[in-house]
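Sequence in, structure out. First:
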Amino acid sequence: MLFVFFQGTRPFFLATSSYTKLVVRNIDEMTVNGVYYKDQLEAINIPDTVNFISIRFPSGEEMLDIKIDKNEKDPAKRLTFTYSGDAVTAYPYRGEAYVHSVSWPAAFAALDKRVNIILPEPPYSLQKFLGGLRWNPTTDKVYGILPMIVGTLLASFGAIILGVPIALLCALFMAEFLKPKFAAIIRAGVELLAGIPSVVYGFFGLMVIVPWVRKTFDIPSGNTLLSAIIVLALMILPTVITIAETSLRAVPLSVREASLALGASKMQTAWGVVLPHANSGVIAGIILGISRAVGETMAVILVAGNSPQLTFSPLESVRTLTSTIAMEMGYASHNSQHNVMLFSIGVTLFVIILILNSFILWFRRRMEQEL
């Protein structure tokens, strides 16, 4: 946990590196600021205090001088090149906003001599991270996660609003109205649903719910926020039902008998007496349901559409925080700003769950005081 927090908070206080890095290709020998390198396979680290890089080659015909302007915030204007030969400069190189490239063309592209200059990325603004509307980590190095935060909260709260009432009614029915034998059979089925992997729920949503949403609302794609809400509601049902039903059955029989003796019906007793007495366990089930909905990944990836846009329409594609981490961790370069920003998303997710759970626990204490 400490490692995740360190990685997740680092990009807002520290630059990605204290060095400007040179990565060379098809260059056997070179001298950089007076230091000789031969068959260099690893990156050459130039301290961030250096403002000028001089690169010389054994032939003497080709040279490269790089002036670094430390005060320039725009990475496109930070470097000034002086070179000889038929060199070609490129910025950004392969879409990386902090990577410049100088190459000397050969007969074949694979034989081009190339020097890549990788600039350290400065600390990122926390305000832009939490409030930004664009997520473009490769080309523009923009890391705004507000659309993913909104998508996560909308999908989670939608699942809670849809799933919790159904789960509570089901738990009440099993605990108060069904005979013990039938309740045991249904309880076993509910527990079986809790053991189904999330990817199976996602596949079910992809094959059943997504086509239904597309046909019902006559939209081009059924991979929408509504599809994610329905799938998440199905996924939290077993958790909420199991914990709530256990809490309801734990209410003493004397409480039920006292209510019935005062003339209350069985439904009035179940809803107005038994349920309030079991509110602690019921709220615990709701908390676990919210945590599962907020932290769900695979099922949401399959049905939500994964478009990082800010929308409040249930018929639009959304992306959640967990989906972003799962989809992009595989190709985010190690120790890059993109990589550590994914850790920052994980920290943000943890804080969101902590805030939601704290609010629900505070609400439970208020209810207990009123009772």
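Second:
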Amino acid sequence: MKIIGCDFHPSWQQVAWLDAETGETGECKLVNGDGEAERFYRALAEPALVGVEACGNSQWFLEMLQRLGHEAWIGDAAQIRASYVRKQKTDKRDAAHILRLLVEGRFPRIWVPSAGQRDVRQLLIHRHKLVEIRTRVKNGLQHLAMNRGMQKKSTLWSVAGQKALRELPLQGWAGRRRQDLLALLKSLDQQIGELDQAVEEEAQRDKMAQLLRTQPGVGPITALAFVVTMGDVTRFRRGKQVASYLGLIPRERSSGGRQRLGAISKQGNRFVRTLLVEAVHNVTRLDESFRKTYQQRCHRMAKGGGGTQVGGTTLLDAAHQHRVSGDRSHREQPAGAPGQSVSTDSIETLIGRSRLPYETGGSHRRIMVAVQGRIDGWWNEVSFTAN
């Protein structure tokens, strides 16, 4: 069996390989565009293990390896670079370093979504980009209206507001701009409506998405994005790891016994983080008890911190629901169910509920238990091992 370390680039790749049976090694540069790379991997006598850093525009390469019967491992680029201490960085050194990590069993392999999950991600991203374009179009129309003394804010998009906008006297290119923006807005509304229907259908088919929609403020888009981004949450041992995966934990620069915490790290999926914070703002408008908790946290921290922290709390409870696969018998009442509100006490204990048992091998089970009391705004944890 051959083990191959690949330093991938969109137009070419540098590979270093090792034959595990004979000990033979080698390296070469392969061009992607003229088929040289595919001919190299097709000529291998038996399936090989290929390690490559996580990077963009490489999906075709991974699919080609799978089609040819090879096994591809995707590695964390930051951890791969951190494990290389030399100051000299070249493509040949990078490929050889990846090969060394594979041989020594230190390759930082990451989770890779399935083809179906990637396809649903494209649906969500496409809709999100169209919504961003529609927002720009609406801002342009608002600018035209306000320049003529019409200040209707959100009512500009009502039937009466649209009629008043069309009747607004605009000459020259300003009139042409209004005409084009209105036509573009109508087209975008139609396309986004079709995508909303597709998202709803996908969410209806996914049991986990249906379960997550019982959370306050979580609709089909947020639920589906969480499912296809997090995958199987049982790979996370505790709730803090889920929050860390999306960058919802604070930066830290602690030394000498002094703890220094900063803003959230934002080292994770920005799209899901945005949806979680939007979910918080939605539920604060509809749930009085939730709004009080949100306002209390906003008073204790900088602007925006309350929404981020409550969004992280929603994330942890969503991960908890995803893990138990619909078993909500541990709750006294189904918090966040349709037509019900979330109490302040339930918000404070959401992080505690996200600590779930996980197997550590043999007959032992390690259980993470959250302490109900809060110290300095953070939750302490205790653990024990039970048979």
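Remark: The chain has three domains: 2-104, 115-205, 216-345.
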